Every structure is written in structure tokens, then in C-alpha cells.
Amino acid sequence: DQQVKQNSPSLSVQEGRISILNCDYTNSMFDYFLWYKKYPAEGPTFLISISSIKDKNEDGRFTVFLNKSAKHLSLHIVPSQPGDSAVYFCAASSPHNFGNEKLTFGTGTRLTIIP
Amino acid sequence: DAGVTQSPTHLIKTRGQHVTLRCSPISGHKSVSWYQQVLGQGPQFIFQYYEKEERGRGNFPDRFSARQFPNYSSELNVNALLLGDSALYLCASSTEDRGLYEQYFGPGTRLTVT
Fold it and tell me: Which residues face B94 on adjacent strands?
């Protein structure tokens, strides 16, 4: 039962353009969403998060959008840079419902930035 | 400030053996969580500890156990290793100030069971 889904295993984007990574979830109890970036042989690095009371959160080149009715979120990276090439994971949490802050991850999207 | 540290980096064990993985959280973080990541999948939650108490447990067999020490470091123990336990084991720490769901990961321990 995959509660967090990233349906695109890979994505290639030209340097300088916008990268859009998508994520869908099925559990309506989730109320915090996070994006992580992972390079090979390293642990995931926290990028940005959003609470379910918001529909947008911005941090520098990274913006996350949340559409609760569609149970969909997306990460926008503008402009894309070669160092953004990595695997991106979407994760969700529901601390108020489960009594713990465990993260449920998607399967990841490999982003490749083409110079 | 140092990030989350894990030891060892790599480990090779034989089926049936036992393994202990170690994690030190970011200074000031009182919560540690453990995740298992197999190839091609996202990390799967194993345990969360906060203030030395178990706060959450994922869908893993009793062969998996963990504890948190007074200095907030943590150990993950796996008994009777199976081939399917081969994976990257990730430790993450978090603090109440940022919300315990905002977790910062270490580099992981790569476990290979032969």
C-alpha cells in the first residue's frame, strides 16, 4: 500500500529552466509534507517542507505547492543548476494523528540537469 | 556544527548473525529515528525514539530492536540476519523546536548480508 507516490522515476531538464517534481498521496491524515534530495552514497538532505494549512512555501530557488483537494504536491526548482542533479524524495507525516513523527516516503524521482 | 553521524559506514555479515548499528544525533536533538532503504525504494520507517522512550515503531519483525542512550545517541540491533535485511540503514535526528517531523539524516550504514 503505497501511501506516497512519485510516478515519474526520472526527469531531465535543461540548465536554467524550471524543474517540476510531482508527488501524490492517498492518506488524508497527512498534514506535513517534506522534500529531500539524495546524492549517491549520502543520506537524504532536507530541502523544504509545507504544512497542510498552507498551499505554498518558498525558499530561494525551491517552491513547494500543495493541493489538498487533489492530494497532490509539487516541487519547483528555478532556475535549475547542474548541482541539482540527484534523486528527490517526497515524504509525508501526521504527528497529530499517529502520535509520532514518522516519515512516509515516495519511491523518488531522479532529476538530471543537462548543461 | 556536526551533522548526524553513523557507524560503521559499511558492514558485511552472514545469514543468522547479529548486527549493531550506531548513530549520534545533531547536538541538541533529542529524537532519533531509524529507516531502512532498499535499492529502488524510498526509506521505510523502523523506529523513533524521543527522550530515550520509544515513540513509534514501523512494520518490522521483532528481530529489529533499538534503544536511545542518555546522551541521545542510539543503537539499532538486528538479530538472525536474513538476506533481505541487506539495505542502507539511515538514522535521522530532530528537535522539538523545528517539529520532530523535520528530520535530518546521516550518511547511512550499508549492510550486506551474504
Answer: B31
